[in-house]
Amino acid sequence: MALSNNIIAILNFLALLCSIPIIASGIWLATQEDSACVRLLRWSAIVLGILILLVALAGFAGAYWNHRCLLASYLICMAALIVLLLAFLVFAFVVTSPDGGYAVPGRAYREYRLSGFSDWLRQYIADDDRWAQIRACLSQSDVCGKLSREKATADRFFQSDLSPLQSGCCKPPTVCGFGYVNPTVWVNAVNPNADPDCLAWSNDQTQLCYGCNACKAGLIGNLRGEWRKANIAFIIAAVVLIWVYIIGCSALKNAQTEELFRRYKQGFT
């Protein structure tokens, strides 16, 4: 039993380590520039990582002190958390699979179409009441302010690596044919009816393209990119946790079998 308990304790230490990238990814997601305006699953990863940390500590303690009830509780809770982590991963993968971005000739940055993203994300972000709050938040943020302070020439700006949020909210769509003055000031649209967003554009620095569908699409593009980066850490953690859990269950089962066999032999001596 001592050997099996040592194995389970070591495995739970690995599970404890797995919680660190999950918590770190959650903190990273919560500190991104769009997180202040969109509280979508903002703390879910952090809470999930902390729960895995606490359960792993409980399993470590149960193995170290050979506490059967604590070990049983650990196995049940860790199984539930692994299922929850897998469900979170599947959900994040499904809603972030479609990519609404497209290349624009002569531009290094991409632009974004709202129709190119998943229905769930599109409906969540484009909800009128929710978008009104997000729009007000974005207009008060420094997302476009960073661009407005740049003194870039047109050629240099067109070769800039804009974030999806900056591409969608801080400038008009390229198809409108606006003339470049600076990153957040554009004039004299050649094709003002090419896209409804062309008429929504304003050089008022508190308005810009915050009322555009392109801005909603850019925000979703930002969220998509962040989630897909965080998913790498979640996938690695999920694989290690499943591996740890299976080996832990096997070690505990073998220990129980050995204990029953030992008692059975003692009954005949």
Question: What features would you describe in this structure?
Answer:
- It is a single chain.
- With 269 residues, the protein is mainly alpha-helical.
- It has ten helices and four strands.
- It has two domains: 138 residues, no CATH class; 120 residues, no CATH class.
- 35% of the residues are buried.
List keywords for this structure.
single chain, 269 residues, mainly alpha, 2 domains, two-stranded antiparallel sheet, 65% helix, 5% strand
In short:
The chain is built from 10 helices and 4 strands, in the order H-H-H-E-E-H-H-H-H-H-E-E-H-H. With 269 residues, the chain is mainly alpha-helical. The strands form 2 sheets. The protein has a two-stranded antiparallel sheet.
